């Protein structure tokens, strides 16, 4: 688990001590088995595995997320067109599930240049990978059921197959198989209990098992009920580690999408393909999420900084040659 003290930035591979090399190798095996277990679960449930997109004109605006801490966005021109590095493949998922792939997942690289001070949290890196998935005609409950089953299966398998590695990391006994269904908290209730600004930090210190958080004001593609003001979306929080998954039921109504884009002052020109699909009635109702792989493995391994889960650490404010 993460300490309250500022964690040390993980070292490059060539600077590791023999003890650190052993630890790194154990985390690497956890990563390998985590990826195999999760991808097997999704494939066995009929999902198609798509390859990722790294450069695109349309990627996640990450706005108006109140937790956003991006120092800069990487934008440049190729073939006379402006492109950005992928912050998430949400737009691609919406288009893909609405046309060819009704159930899909992607191991998607994400580049988010976090402010340097976020290295102190131990929970942020500026390059990370999500297991992004999406399903047509699915509900939030469908996502909850899928994710809970996948994580329970994963942890059971890891505790059975990787006992030496978990023992070396000191996690064999501490890592428990969570009870299901996971507890669900409404964001408004948490704000009342802990305060508007402190609820997430205080909650993750109180959690003993993973828990869902619902009804979070967020980007235009998350479903919002204009009548009640409630959002049909969710985060999954891990004890001590915080958010490991973010997702929602998606908007597919043209008028609502336009209204929210204008309300949030998002650049409409960056999302014209999705807007046109919604206008033509071709954007289907879907639900999905993205699971942060490094955070998940970091929680399982009990690391102090999730960049320790990367062969080549990408901690904010630090640039290594490799």
Short description:
The protein is of the alpha+beta class and 322 residues long. The protein contains nine helices and 14 strands. The strands form three sheets. Strands 1, 6, 8, 9, 10, 11, 12, 13 and 14 form a nine-stranded mixed sheet that branches.
Q: Which term fits the overall shape?
A: globular
Largest sheet: 9 strands, mixed
Q: pLDDT average, as an integer?
A: 95
Number of beta strands: 14
Q: How many angstroms does the end-to-end distance come to?
A: 27 Å
Helix content: 25-40%
Q: What is the element string, with H for helices and E for strands?
A: HEEEEEHEEEHHEHHEEEEHHEH
Low-confidence stretches: none
What does this structure look like?
- The chain is an alpha+beta fold.
- It is 34% helix and 22% strand.
- The protein has helices at 18-44, 90-99, 140-161, 163-168, 187-194, 199-206, 254-263, 272-279, 293-301; strands at 48-50, 55-56, 70-72, 75-78, 81-85, 103-111, 113-114, 127-136, 183-186, 211-214, 223-224, 231-238, 242-249, 286-292.
- Strands 1, 6, 8, 9, 10, 11, 12, 13 and 14 form a nine-stranded mixed β-sheet that branches.
- β4 and β5 form a beta hairpin.
- The longest helix is centred in the first third of the chain and has 27 residues, at 18-44.
- It is globular and about 60 Å long.
